[in-house]
Amino acid sequence: MVAAWHRAGDTVALVPTMGALHRGHLTLVQHACGLARHVIASVFVNPTQFGPNEDFSRYPRDEAGDAAKLVGAGCSLLYAPDAGEMYPPNFATTVSAGALAEPLENQFRPGHFTGVATVVTKLLLQSQADIACFGEKDYQQLQIIRRLARDLDIPIRIEAVPTVREPDGLALSSRNSYLSDDERRIAPALHRVLTDVAARFAAGASTQDVAAWGAAELLRAGFAKLDYLDLRDAETLQPLVDRSRPGRALVAAWLGKTRLIDNQALPPTKNAG
């Protein structure tokens, strides 16, 4: 089917998902519809990106509901392989995510980005799409995918789509469904504190001071613990030293048994030199 679309001169876009679709996913599909004649959405809960004590078995799944939502959003084709199709017997090849995967998430989810990089590489190649759309909420993942497409000469454009939020600022995520009512009331503090972190950084505060302030604020707001709150170079994800370069504040924090991530852009604050 994709080959026929290409023969007709049509552009094809891919939106990879793990299902349990919400407004954030559908925004990706709608964005893709504005870029391409045909949109493929994949639904695959990828086992290789979950650690042994993570939520693979309870990750929300609703393929029938997802299919109906995709039709309504303008999707042309749903690709929903099972694990046996993606990882057939004797599957042995993985994709290393390189230096971009080493900080932040890897410190708490070792091997996660090897699973992500491998499955995304397969999806990009299987789909034969011209464009693939990814949300900025998973910012480290986005940077890794941009790099692997470039480094492996995969002929596809990686399109970043801004994070979709609830009216109170909470980034949409399938895992938000795990939150209790009390935890849901606390959760918007994640975005609020990141916004304040960005403002303090823009006003001249040091990266160390503003990160420490943000971490304390989140704990004060009711988060149980933080895996990290860090300010990084937006492209390399190395510690943000050169304030003339774009940066990113990234956070992973826990409410009960639910781990939430978010990020905020840090515009350059002074001229180089």
Folded structure, characterized:
The protein folds into two domains: 2-161, HUPs (Rossmann fold, 3-Layer(aba) Sandwich), CATH 3.40.50; 174-266, Pantoate-beta-alanine ligase, C-terminal domain (Pantoate--beta-alanine Ligase, Chain: A,domain 2, 2-Layer Sandwich). The N and C termini lie far apart (54 Å). It has a five-stranded parallel β-sheet with strand order 3-2-1-4-5, sandwiched between helices. The protein is of the alpha/beta class and 273 residues long. The model has no long low-confidence stretch (mean pLDDT 96). Strand 1 (12-17), helix 2 (23-33) and strand 2 form a beta-alpha-beta unit. 37% of the residues lie in helices and 19% in strands. The radius of gyration is 19 Å and the shape is globular.
The CATH superfamily of the largest domain appears as HUPs
User: What percent of the residues sit in helical stretches (DSSP H or I)?
Assistant: 25-40%
Beta-strand segment tally: 8
What is the number of independent domains?
Answer: 2
* CATH topology category name of the largest domain: Rossmann fold
Major sheet strand order: 3-2-1-4-5
- Give a quick account of the main beta sheet: strands, pairing sense, barrel closure: 5 strands, parallel
Mean pLDDT, to the nearest integer, reads: 96
Task: Figure out the total of helices.
Answer: 10
What value does the Rg take, in angstroms?
19 Å
What's the SSE pattern? HEHEHEHHHEHEHHHEEE
Distance between the terminal alpha carbons, to the nearest Å?
54 Å
Extract low-pLDDT stretches: none
